[in-house]
């Protein structure tokens, strides 16, 4: 058994220590907002926060989480990230960012990490912070606009 803090709650999970956090979230805890894209750290669909830092859950063994706090898209509008999380989600809705939507939870998690550190990011800051989140529908222009909107 491994104990981890997920969205402010201590959870006991029965998973092999090498199991990627992504699969613990999706299969054991039914937190399916975190998506599987590539499984190799290349697409960003699986992005969650670990102690507020955008992190690829497909590359993070559950045993590596330790006492750090995991936040998923289901709770990005609560707790420590509440203010920024709510602003980002409102901007995403206002600017109708999503197309198919599959990558968008990962996009939002990365955007919240960016805005938590940098309240007024430039286009270059956004491109640097979001470069690891791939969108097959190419919603990048709306993502950038929504980050600026959330920063207002
Ligand atoms: Fe983790 Fe693609 S599924 S980066």
Automatic annotation (TrEMBL):
Keywords: 2Fe-2S, Iron, Iron-sulfur, Metal-binding, Oxidoreductase
Listed InterPro entries: 2Fe-2S-bd (IPR002888), 2Fe-2S-bd_dom_sf (IPR036884), 2Fe-2S_ferredoxin-like_sf (IPR036010), 2Fe-2S_ferredoxin-type (IPR001041), 2Fe2S_fd_BS (IPR006058), Beta-grasp_dom_sf (IPR012675), Diverse_Oxidoreductases (IPR051452)
Pfam families linked: Fer2, Fer2_2
Keyword Metal-binding attributed: yes
The keyword Iron-sulfur is assigned to this record: yes
Entry superkingdom: Bacteria
SUPFAM superfamilies linked to this entry: 2Fe-2S ferredoxin-like, CO dehydrogenase ISP C-domain like
GO molecular function: 2 iron, 2 sulfur cluster binding; metal ion binding; oxidoreductase activity
2Fe-2S ferredoxin-type domain sequence ranges: 1-76
Full protein name: Isoquinoline 1-oxidoreductase alpha subunit
